[in-house]
Specification:
Layout lengths: L5 H21 L8 E7 L6 E10 L2 E4 L4 E4 L4 E4 L18 E14 L10 E3 L4 E3 L11 E3 H4 L9 E2 L2 H4 L8 E5 L14 E4 L11 E3 L1 H10 L7 E6 H7 L13
Parallel strand pairs: 1-14, 5-6, 6-7, 12-13
Antiparallel strand pairs: 1-2, 2-3, 2-4, 6-11, 6-14, 8-9, 8-10, 11-12
Length: 255
Amino acid sequence: MIAVPRWFALFIACLLPCIASVSIAGELPWSGARQLVVVTTSDWNSNQGTLQTFMKSDRGWQPAAAAIPITIGREGAAWGVGLHPMQAGLAKKEGDGRSPAGVFRIGNAFGYPASVHTALRYKGMSDSDYCIDVSTSPLYNRIVDARVVGKKAIEGSTEPMRRDIHAGGDHRYKLGFVIEHNNNGATALGSCIFAHIWKSPGEPTSGCTAMDESAMEALLAWLQPEENPIFVLLPQQEYARLRVEWNLPTLKGRQ
């Protein structure tokens, strides 16, 4: 048997965790993402935050545009159900007024116009489109057309997708996209989570992420499905804790 020098054994012992971490990082469900929408807040209970966009290049994550102000759920954030591993702490529940924290796929875009400038799959909403927030419904957390599923199927839902028609001219869903939280519709874990226009500057939401209309227009124009865009929402302390493990960008001046 060939004797191995002690220094070489120690070197290998130190290297193995690094190799393991690279392997784990490579297996992240969002490893193929080349666009990131990152929302951070000061803490779990803050309903104000900042949105930044990043594009992956040969040099890693690079900022794609200037940061913008956003609002989230009126009660802050709680861990959602997405692409990320399960985390200890407060979990998102239906009606809790919190936005889901974690890493999520970006789903379809929606709005009031028949068409908008976006490469995302888009559907213009009609007065019969609803997102079902009734947790006992088999259609929970899905956008459905009452003309297709029947009026009885939308009974009790508080999320008409044409809020301008059903909610006194509310323009919040004029432009937006789905954040795929609880995509399998597990009972009472939260539903109808979107990025959309805010009702007024700085006004929090019931669990979505809201912003100025011009910012939403720019975001929809920037997102490209072939780049596998991902949405991340985390309080700053959690972002700092998970940034390296989750292969997230460095946020200038914060992490």
